[in-house]
Design a protein that fits this description.
Layout (H helix, E strand, L loop, with lengths): L2 H4 L5 E5 L2 H4 L2 H10 L2 E3 L6 H4 L2 H6 L16 H10 L2 E9 L21 H22 L4 E8 L1 H4 L4 H6 L3 H13 L5 E6 L5 H16 L5 E4 L2 E3 L4 H13 L3 E10 L6 H24 L4 E6 L25 H31 L7 H18 L7 H16 L60 H21 L5
Parallel strand pairs: 1-2, 1-9, 2-3, 3-4, 4-5, 5-6, 6-8, 7-8, 8-9
The structure holds alpha-D-galactopyranose.
Alpha-D-galactopyranose (GLA) binds next to loops.
Amino acid sequence: ASLKDLYGDYFLIGTCTPYALLRSEDYEGLISQQYNSLTSENEAKPENLLDINACIAEPEKYNESPAVKFDTIEPTLQYCQKNGVKYRLHALVWHSQTPTALFYENYDTSGNRVSPELMSKRLENYIKQILEWCEENYPGVVYAVDVVNEAASAGQNSEWYRTFGDYSFITKAFEYADKYAPEDMKLFYNDYGMASASKQQNVINLLREAKEAGWVDGIGMQSHLSATDNMDNHVNALKIYADLGYEMQLTELDITVPWSGTEEEKFAQQATAYENLFRNLVEAKKQGYNITSVTIWGVADNFSWKNSQLPILFNADLSKKPAFDALVALGEEAKLDATVSNLQAIVNDMEAMDTTMYTSDSVAALTDAVNAAKALLAEGANPTQAQLDQAIADIEAAQAGLVPNTPEEENPGENPDPGDTPNPDETPGPDENPNPDASPDPDKAPDQVEEPSKTGDNMPLAALTVFSVCAAVAAGVVFVKKRHLR
Ligand code: GLA
């Protein structure tokens, strides 16, 4: 069973891993089977992407634009690109695992702290270089970035706060990230303890300016939880953020086992906790809450930062724990529900479709497939996943097999009477069609059949060329500026 498959209709399912595990057959096998999103636990943190030694060696050269390096994340990004896996970039601005010299004149901690103005430049250029590098080299791979991590938790106890003298670095970080990120790279604030009411209020206040400016997309709830936590509360807090317009992700989920009990009891409680959480998430998603990704913070218990509390879905030998089995059982239900809705939507589309332009035999095949699907969807039918999947495949095949009527067979009542005055706004009737190539292509699915062009047919070639060039330029502009058009 595969979590990414079972929950694929709801959200991405990720894990965090160092690149080293992706080079081992066993770990890579498990990761690629279960997950479609990866986060580097440490390799993308400032201590790794900032080349502080280069900055210290040539402080003038790097005064406004810190040296960066990508050797720690490049192999993982290559892996993701090659395998169609999504990547969460964690994290740009953080009080921890960030060289202190970044905040000092000449990158020298024995001297003075830099001014907020210079720090803003360093911040902007750090973000710019990283986001541009990702987009240039791995377009579309990085789908989410933790632009700011744990600023509410760190409070004033952070070099960022000390250097700026306030929290303005949060708004600035999102402003710069928005300036350089492509549209498909979502910008997140990430923190722990996000279900506590006071933390929640604090986070919402700290993000208000950036949110109102449209620079922040989402909130990551790290979700370092324990089996005794109330999972309803956790997801209720998520809904409050989501109601404010934030896209939501669980970014570092782990659920530690309780302190007492036999291992069997502990694992059973942990399984129940994972199941409660995911049941709430799936329900919330069905209710329309914008939850896009859930990342489990480690591949197996022994790699977890809380390894002694066994918080992950797999044992050190990669065998499944009860928590994994519980998520699979719940995921099977969730997938079945999603497939039922999906099939219902397909049936509705098919029933609303105008089939008069297809041969009666090919329409009959589609009608049979739709009727078979309706029987599966009927009250009390209790279809299996395999039956539902088959029904969808059958409808798709019948739809692809629709054969358009040849002009002679078409119902003449629907076409303009040749004796009528031709109406230039109407698509030419089959008898008047000067171009035999423009008749519908029987190999194409109905939604791919081109409409005869109304503008193109009579347009002089030069005008058409000018029109195409303008359209291409306009498309290019839209592409480049897409993030700012939201
Ligand atoms: C925080 C950070 C993570 C990681 C964990 C421990 O949650 O956001 O990057 O350091 O602590 O793994």
